[in-house]
Amino acid sequence: MKLIDSNGENWEINFQKTRNLNSISKITLNEKDFQLSNTNFSIKSNKIILSQGGQNIVAYVVKQKDTWWVKINGRTLTYTSGDIRKTNRKQLNDGSLLSPMPGTVLDVKVTKGQSVKIGDSLIIMEAMKMEHKITAPFNGTVEKLNCEISQKVDRGFVLIELKQN
């Protein structure tokens, strides 16, 4: 499975099934391979349990169209099909940050012309009863804000445009 996360990182996850166990054999992040030994998983409804070395990690997953929302260890992550994201990127500039799913803008933490650093929180959204932070993928300047507090937006709506420094 190929995915792109909300920070633009490219993921590829290889699954296999042996003796009634589902396991993850390899994860590739930005073309770097990570082999996983004895990492099994089970899926029950929207709950995934990863088991490795006697430790369990629980993740809750919600999928809408081609986007997966994953809540794990108090963080919410979004992943979009790599194929879908590539076609959308051709029509946008590199600093366009999109709404990963339909939702409501709860807070806009920046203003036009403001300098931001990688990881800075820019916009807080609520989508499917989960709060999601839109963060700066690089150091840059806010060129354009296309949303305001309480605005409802569709999946793929360009929330903010950044220019890389």
Describe the protein:
The protein is mainly beta. It folds into two domains: 2-83; 95-164, Beta Barrel (OB fold (Dihydrolipoamide Acetyltransferase, E2P)), CATH 2.40.50. It contains one helix and 17 strands. The protein has one helix at residues 82-89; strands at 2-5, 10-18, 21-29, 32-35, 39-44, 47-52, 55-64, 67-72, 75-81, 96-98, 103-108, 115-116, 121-127, 130-135, 140-145, 152-153, 158-164. The strands form three sheets. It has an eight-stranded antiparallel beta barrel. A four-stranded antiparallel β-sheet has the order 10-17-15-12, with no helix packed on it. A hairpin with a 2-residue loop joins strand 2 and strand 3 (21-29).
Structural topology:
Layout lengths: L1 E4 L4 E9 L2 E9 L2 E4 L3 E6 L2 E6 L2 E10 L2 E6 L2 E7 H8 L6 E3 L4 E6 L6 E2 L4 E7 L2 E6 L4 E6 L6 E2 L4 E7 L1
Antiparallel strand pairs: 1-2, 1-9, 2-3, 3-4, 3-5, 5-6, 6-7, 7-8, 8-9, 10-17, 11-13, 11-16, 12-15, 13-14, 15-17
